[in-house]
Write a structure and sequence with these properties.
Length: 188
Amino acid sequence: MGTSMSLHVEKKVGDKWVYVHAPGKPPQVANRETPPIDWYGDIRYHSYDTMALLADVRNYDGIKPIARWRGMPAAASAELLAAFDWCDTGAHWVTLAEIKAYDYDQLITKPSRWMSAEELAKLGWNTAPFLDIVRRRGLHNEVPEGYTLQSFPVRQFVDDFLDTFLPTVENECSCAPADIRLVMWFDC
């Protein structure tokens, strides 16, 4: 069983929050018949560390989240509310300004050696779509034999999100980071 994150972007225009459509995807529509168009559909960004950072979800390593669970933001756009109608969990949001202000140099403790895709495959895991981004820990979150615990900066585990995904969001929005919010919910 895994967890997926549905992530949507809004920007503030004047005193109103406006839905920002994901680049290269069909526009999100404000109706309940059309499934949501997710900004976060690229498998490269699906990591429990990113989920832990943004919302304290699947936080196995004690990463300090950017913000505790907030619920659906006030004054959400019609497109966002229509997308959320497909969800059966609660919503959470953070601003780009909060994401940028976070201390990514803080250390978290993880096993010093990760299991390769080949090692996971020997255990019977289907690793084809995930390869090097799959969670590489013991089956029950224990420290596997032959591993030691070591401290790593948080940035090391969320760099694709920070260096690839967030610049795309910022470019599409073309406004101040405090006026951009990422709204998400999780399917477990």
